[in-house]
Write a structure and sequence with these properties.
alpha/beta; Rossmann fold; 5-stranded parallel β-sheet; 4-stranded mixed β-sheet
Length: 253
C-alpha cells in the first residue's frame, strides 16, 4: 500500500463511501503482516517509495506463491526476482479464478510480475546497456524492475568494448537517457566508456560472466570501482534489481 492508496482510502471514508471499520480492516496489517515464515511489509512503498520485493532464490515454490498472493491482495504491484518457472506455476495455481490482471513470467529476467496499479512515473527514460548476450539475464532483471516501477526503459544489448563501434552506433540513445544502467562481466570496462560519453548518472552492474580470472564477477566489480569516469557508481555483482531501484529513484527527482 503506497501513499496514493492510503489517500484514496481516507477520501472514501471522508465522503461516506466506506465505513470506518472497513478502513481499519484495510490498514490492520500496518506495519507488517505476519504469515509465520515471513513478515510482509505492505507499507514499505509509503516509507521509501519502493514496495517490498520477493527474493525468490532459497524459497520454496509454495512459499513464493503464498507471499505473492498476500502481496497481490494488498493491491499494489508485485515483483519476485530470481524466480523459476516452477514458482510461477505455483503462483498461477493460487489465482485460477482471478478476474483481474494475471501474473507474468519473464524467463530471461527470471522474474514474476503482477501489475495492478500505475507507479509514479519517471521524468525521463532509463537506458539499460549490457556488454554481451551472456549479461542479458542481469540486464533484463533491471529492465523488468524499472518498468514495473513506472519508468520508460530502453534496452541496448551486446555493445561491449571488444567491438566498440557497436556502442558508438548507439550514442543517441545513450545520450537521451536520464539515467543509465550498464551491465558487464569479464574485465568490466563498459561502464567507464559509457560514463565518458554521457552527462547522466551511470549505475554499473558487474556480472558473474567470464573465465576463471574473472573470479565470478569480482574482477569486473573491482574494475568498476576503480573507474576514472566520475559519474559512475557501482552496485553488487549481478544486482540488476538494485540498480533499477536506484535508477528509478534518481529518475523521479
Amino acid at each position: 500500500m503506497d501513499r496514493a492508496h492510503i489517500e484514496a482510502l481516507l477520501n472514501e471514508v471522508r465522503e461516506g463511501r466506506m465505513a470506518v471499520n472497513e478502513a481499519v480492516d484495510r490498514l490492520k496489517d500496518l506495519p507488517f503482516e505476519d504469515i509465520g515464515f515471513a513478515k510482509l511489509d505492505h507499507h514499505r512503498a509509503l516509507r521509501t517509495g519502493m514496495p517490498e520485493v520477493i527474493f525468490a532464490s532459497g524459497k520454496t515454490a509454495a512459499q513464493v506463491a503464498t507471499i505473492f498472493a498476500r502481496m497481490a491482495k494488498a493491491g499494489g504491484n508485485v515483483l519476485a526476482t530470481r524466480a523459476t518457472r516452477e514458482m510461477y506455476e505455483a503462483v498461477q495455481a493460487l489465482e485460477p479464478n482471478s478476474q483481474g490482471p494475471r501474473a507474468e513470467f519473464h524467463e530471461t529476467a527470471r522474474a514474476i510480475t503482477l501489475t495492478q496499479s500505475a507507479a509514479t512515473p519517471g521524468k525521463g527514460s532509463i537506458a539499460v546497456v549490457c556488454a554481451g548476450t551472456s549479461d542479458l539475464p542481469v540486464a533484463e532483471e533491471a529492465v523488468v524492475t524499472a518498468r514495473l516501477m513506472g519508468n520508460t526503459v530502453e534496452l541496448i544489448a551486446d555493445v561491449g568494448v571488444a567491438g566498440i563501434h557497436r556502442l558508438l552506433a548507439q550514442k543517441q540513445g545513450l545520450q537521451s537517457a536520464r539515467v543509465l544502467i550498464v551491465c558487464a562481466g569479464m574485465e568490466g570496462a563498459l561502464p567507464t566508456v559509457v560514463g565518458g560519453l554521457v552527462n547522466a548518472p551511470v549505475i554499473a552492474v558487474p556480472t558473474s560472466v567470464g573465465y576463471g580470472a574473472s573470479f565470478g564477477g569480482i574482477a569486473a566489480l573491482l574494475g568498476m570501482l576503480n573507474t576514472c569516469s566520475p559519474n559512475v557508481s557501482v552496485v553488487n555483482i549481478d544486482n540488476g534489481f538494485g540498480a533499477a531501484c536506484i535508477a528509478s529513484l534518481i529518475n523521479r527527482l
